[in-house]
Structures are given as structure tokens and as C-alpha cells.
């Protein structure tokens, strides 16, 4: 019984270390994804402005 508890405690340390590592990776990926999303939104806005100005210019 005590051996089993000791075994579980030892493994829980490994699990916590792995969780910390995975959390750091997740934060890094989230930051990159946010940056990509912002760049896509900026490109869409610029494209919308270009299309709107070309349509507005051709109507005048």
C-alpha cells in the first residue's frame, strides 16, 4: 500500500513537470495564433478599402 502511494507521488511530479512544459507551449502557440489573426484582419481591411475605393472611383 505504501509502495503504491510512493509510486503515485513520484509519477505525479513527472506529470506536473510535463504539464508546465505543455502550458508554456500552449501560451506560445496562442500568441502566434493571435498575431496571425490580427495580420489576416488587417489584410482584409486593406483589401476592403481598395475594393471600396475602386468601386467608388468607377461610379463617379
UniProtKB/TrEMBL annotation:
InterPro entries in alphabetical order: Syntaxin, T_SNARE_dom
GO terms, biological process: exocytosis; intracellular protein transport; neurotransmitter transport; vesicle docking; vesicle fusion
Record's subcellular location: Membrane
PROSITE patterns: T_SNARE
Keyword match Iron-sulfur: no
Superkingdom of origin: Eukaryota
Keyword field contains Transmembrane: yes
Transmembrane segments: 38-59
Domain T-SNARE coiled-coil homology: 1-26
GO CC terms: endomembrane system; plasma membrane; SNARE complex
GO molecular function: SNAP receptor activity; SNARE binding
Membrane topology: Single-pass type IV membrane protein
Keywords, comma-separated and alphabetical: Coiled coil, Membrane, Neurotransmitter transport, Transmembrane, Transmembrane helix, Transport
Xref: PANTHER family: SYNTAXIN, SYNTAXIN-1A
Protein name: t-SNARE coiled-coil homology domain-containing protein
Lineage of source species: Eukaryota, Metazoa, Chordata, Craniata, Vertebrata
